[in-house]
Amino acid sequence: VSWNKVGREHFLSIGTEIWVQDANLEIAHYTWPAGISEWNLVFREARFEDSGLYDCQIISTEKLTFRVRLTVSEKPPHNPIISIEGKEFVESGQTVYLKCNTTEGDRMPEDLDWFKDGDKIEASEYPNILITKFRFKDTMTLVSELMIISGTGNDSGTYICRSSSDLIASVEVNVLVADSSNVKRGTGISHTQTGNGQNYGNSAICFYFFGQNPLIFCVVLLAHLIIQSVIT
């Protein structure tokens, strides 16, 4: 098996030997079952002058040739980006949800970390915190989600996501402990007292099951109905 660049007088390689003085070239030879072999021409670092047509020839009783075209193009610009999204105002007891997206242009970011008020968040140390990470090869994007179940006032603060290349995005989160007679920020719904003047509100118990298909089951308990039934 030989390799040659169309337009050159001499072979680039014959068998596993390189026949030109070019340290950038090598032959990768592999043998597979059923008599299948690979003779791959490898360019350690592609250069613009390497563009062109190449012939792979099998020399036997009948010469067989396979022609391929190599095009070496400009390297895409390295344009790292990071962004964070999520609600800035969350009612106490609700889930704090933040999502961070980062890309480093032509390469996949190695990792992404979360911080609160300057301290790194270790999800393993908090039973109500879940951090997930997803990699998308088609866009070279790393996405991380931070969830704090049943947020409290202690969860208010500045949250930062930082990529392995030190890109940073931040958001200020406020967990509100609102009076039942006030309008909840961002909802536009007014909660007023009804019936006997007591408003116990609603509470919810959520069960989270994580696997290939995450499921969330929530059972809503109407507290005032339960209390009334007990009184009765």
Automatic annotation (TrEMBL):
Protein name according to UniProt: Ig-like domain-containing protein
Membrane-crossing residue ranges in chain numbering: 207-227
Any one biological process term the GO annotation gives: synapse organization
UniProt-listed SMART domains: IG (SM00409)
Keywords assigned by UniProt, alphabetized: Membrane, Transmembrane, Transmembrane helix
GO cellular component, one term: neuron projection membrane
Segments forming domain Ig-like: 1-73, 80-174
Lineage: Eukaryota, Metazoa, Spiralia, Lophotrochozoa, Mollusca
Organism the protein comes from: Candidula unifasciata
Superkingdom, taxonomy of origin: Eukaryota
